[in-house]
Amino acid sequence: MKRVSVLGSVVGTGILIASAALLAQQPAAPATPAPAGQAPGARAGGPPGGGVSQILKVADNLYQVPGAGGTTAVFVTATGVVLVDTKLANNGQAILDQVKTVTDKPITHIINTHTHGDHNGSNQFFPPTVEIVTQANTSANMAKMPVFQEAANKHGLPDRTFTDRLTVLSGKESIDLYYFGAAHTNGDAFVVFRDAAVMHTGDAFANKGQPLVDRANGGSGVAYPETIAKAAAQAKNIKTIITGHAQNGATMTPQDLADFGEFTGLMLSHARAALKQGQTPEQAMTDFRAKLPAKFKDYNLAGGRGGPGGNFGVLFEELQGK
Predict the structure, then answer these.
(1) Residue 25 DSSP symbol
(2) Which whole-number Å values give the CA distances from 173 to 178, 202, 274, in the listed order?
(3) How far apart are CA 182 and CA 191, in angstroms?
(4) CB neighbours (10 Å) of residue 318?
(5) This prediction's pTM
(6) Helix axis angle, 312-319 to 254-276, nearest 10°
(7) What is the signed CA dihedral for 156, 129, 58, 164, rounded to 10 degrees?
(8) How many whole angstroms separate alpha carbon 210 and alpha carbon 191?
(9) What does the angle CA 96 – CA 106 – CA 46 come to, to the nearest 5 degrees?
């Protein structure tokens, strides 16, 4: 496949439209076993109910498919379908089955919001004619993933990258991709469907709760608040936000995004203060819960994001330069 790199703050004139041959029914790529470490529950496809949920309308020509990993956005254009994220491995057919309930057009593009296997795990199901787009750091991170080092799966790697901004397609079909800095990873793309005024935030804003900071893939709890603040500023004309793991297909608002940025800022400020006081991550979390403003009462602070100490262990390490 041809690899194209878009450097700097470049607005592309649109990804090349797939060839006429792609208008035929899309063939399935050979099945590939889930790699070691793949989250359990990945399916070979089938009707909703085994992980992939029923497709839901978000706006004209724009849909989402929750479940079985990250939220997949489905954008129907004049000539094909653009997917944002492809869930866990072995869900390609299930995604395609849901797409076929709203259109017979072929998949022409995939945009991956970041490097994790619950968002790019079914890339390789789709044929090499599908053009895959990511932020440049995500492309580098994906190249290190064992699944994409297998020759049979290399067509699941990005064909086109950007650093700060890129526009895919044109006119009323324009999709603007933004990178505002490190957060969940060092390559989180915010995907804006311009005419629909909808933003897909990937796992930079996965849901209401403490985020996962993947330092191994360049994520930063220190940079997180600033990154989300920039995204929220860009979202001033946005009506609807699709999050990385939409609960039952629920969408969010720009205010929700701004509030999430405030939450990450409060967590960072509390981490700095807790370190000075010699607190443990667990003590910091207990104190943080007690002082958290009422507007965040529904946020998920349960264990699992670093155990009882939540993100404070990760924040402490980063603040200490570890």
Answers:
(1) P
(2) 16, 20, 48
(3) 16
(4) 19
(5) 0.84
(6) 60
(7) 60
(8) 21
(9) 15
Residue type, 311: N
Q: What are the tens digits of pLDDT across the range 77-106?
A: 999 999 999 999 999 999 999 999 999 999
- CA 162 – CA 59 distance, rounded (Å): 26
Cα 127 from Cα 152, distance rounded (Å): 11
Q: Which two tokens stand for residue 45?
A: 């496809």
Residue 318 and residue 274: Cα distance in Å, rounded? 14
| Contacts with 284 (C-beta within 8 Å, 6 or more apart), sequence order | 270, 271, 274, 309, 312, 316
Write the DSSP symbol of residue 202. Answer: G
Neighbour count for residue 297 (Cβ, 10 Å): 7
Query: With contact defined as beta carbons under 8 Å apart, do 126 and 110 qualify?
Result: yes
- Give every CB contact of residue 249 below 8 A, 6+ residues apart in sequence: 53, 56, 64, 66
